[in-house]
Structure formats: C-alpha cells, structure tokens
Amino acid sequence: PDLSGAAVSLAHLCEGSGVHALVKPLAHSLVVLRKAVAACRHLTPPGPDAEAASALVKAAAFLEPTRTPERHLEFALAAHTDKASTLDFLHSVEAALDRLRETLPSPRQAQAAAEALKAWRGELGEFVKGCTKVWEIFAYFVFLDVKGDRALFGQTARRLCQLLECPMQMLVKCFARTRPWADSICRALAGKQMQRLLERLHTEALNQWRAEWQERSYKVPERHHSSDEAQHGSKFWESYFTHLFKISWPDFVEAFEHFYLLGRCPE
User: Fold this and answer.
1) How many CB atoms are located within 10 Å of the residue 252 CB?
2) Residue 58, SS3?
3) Residue 47 and residue 40: Cα distance in Å, rounded?
4) DSSP state, residue 22
5) What pLDDT, in 10s, does the model give residues 53-107?
6) How many Cα atoms occupy the beta-carbon half-sphere of 60 within 13 Å?
C-alpha cells in the first residue's frame, strides 16, 4: 500500500475549501500524520511497515466519500449508523500515529506525533457528535415530511444546511442519496421507536421558530403592532379579502399566517 499517498490524501480531505464540515476537526492530527510520514520516507532501515500503510489506506477510504459534495449528508448518516466502520477508522489512524511515533528520527517530531495521538480521540469525538447531530436533524426532517409541517420543514432544511455548510441546492442533491436512511427512519417512526428524540427535537424546533418569528415581528411596519384590536382585524380583512363575505379555510389560514405570523405556522 502507498503510505505516503494515503497520508497526503487523508490530510487533503480535511483541509482547504469545500472540505466536509464535520471532518474539519480531524485536520490537525492528520496533517501531523502526513508530515510524520514524509519525515520517515528516507529512513534506513525503512520507516513504518506495511501494516501501518494498510491502516492509512483504510482510513483514507473511509473519508473518500467526503470528496464529493453530493455525498456529504450520506457520509454523515453512514458514519453515525455504521459505528463499526467509524471505530475502525479511529483505530486505523491511531495505529499509524503510534507506529510513526516509534519510528520518527527526531525527538521533536516524535513528540508532535505523540501529542497528535493523544488529541486524536478528542477530535474524533467531535466528529462523531457532529454526525449524530446531522442524523438526528435528518430523522426529524423525515418526520416533518411525513407529518406535512411546511413551516418547520423549511426551518429544519436550513438547519441541515448550517450543519453541513452547504447551500440549499446542494442539500437537495444530497437528499437523492439518502433513501436507505429515510426508509429506516420511517420504519422506526411506524414502530414508535423515536418518541423521546422527536419530542426533544420538536421542542427545540418550536423554540427556534418562535425566536425567529419574534425577530421578524420587530422588523415589520407599525401596522402590525396596532393596539386597537378591532382596527387591526379590519385592516387584516381589507388587506386580503376586500369585497368578500365567504372564504375557504385554507385561504384564511394562509392570509392569517402572512399578516399576523409573518410566515407559516407550525402544524
């Protein structure tokens, strides 16, 4: 296996523009690893053995999907649900760093590798937390899709964009690759296996919606803050239903949301 190529690939996948948001915390240790591999290239006898090289190649393969933006959501969901592969990734990098620490010719370089090895578990812990959060928000998104809540649906999609640091257009492309996880979540919903998680996420979403609504309400024209309730009601009716005496309930709800709530209301 190509030890140097795998080390360079690992570091590259965590640095620069377009990098998956969730793998950024891994950059420090993987850059140290790349430098350590470079320092061992011309050792006599040779540096890290084939076992270390295989470990790095395996680790690079784990992160490879992050190279494609359309796979960023898929990667996070897989990292959360396939815990064995994520743990294998952890151990692969650990093994390589440990072997390099023993091989590096310079005490300073060996110390840097030892510190990176020590920090690695913490960095991966941040990565795992991020993947778990993405999976939870995605699960809630699927729930809202089934429920048909338009207000919180859009809000939750924006939350996923924030977590993945991607535009909405890219998120839509990401969704095309998430069918297996969506199906699994639907089965869990049918079996009522996610009630506590959904209760927590729904509470958080409603609080966020309320905070955003309050922020919007402060920015609207003064007509929305009238203290005369009767006058306010007349203005609402005249704004949307002039010369009408009978309207459909959906039309009324939509107008009410726009005038009083300045957007859609959670269902």
Assistant:
1) 13
2) helix
3) 5
4) G
5) 788 888 999 999 999 999 999 999 999 999 999 999 999 888 888 888 777 777 8
6) 21
Which DSSP symbol is given to 105? Answer: S
What torsion do the CA atoms of 31, 37, 42, 45 make, to the nearest 10 degrees? Answer: 150
d(CA 34, CA 10): 8
**Distances from the Cα of 245 to the Cαs of 34, 234, 238, 248, 253, in angstroms?**
73, 13, 11, 10, 16
| DSSP 3-state of 212 | helix
pTM exceeding the 0.85 threshold for the entire prediction: no
Strand ranges, E, within the chain: none
Contact between 19 and 25 (Cβ < 8 Å): no
136-141's contacts with Cβ under 8 Å and 24+ in sequence apart are 136/197, 136/201, 137/163, 137/201, 138/73, 138/77, 138/178, 138/181, 138/185, 139/185, 139/188, 139/194, 139/197, 139/198, 139/201, 140/197, 140/198, 140/201, 140/202, 140/205
137 contacts: CB under 8 Å, gap ≥ 6: 156, 159, 160, 163, 201
Q: Which two tokens stand for residue 174?
A: 């990401």
State whether the Cα torsion 167-172-173-179 is positive or negative.
Answer: positive
Residue 237 corresponds to which tokens in the numbers above? 């009716």
Burial pattern 130-139, b for ≥16 Cβ within 10 A else e, equals bbebbbbbbb
**Between 192 and 265, the higher pLDDT residue:** 192
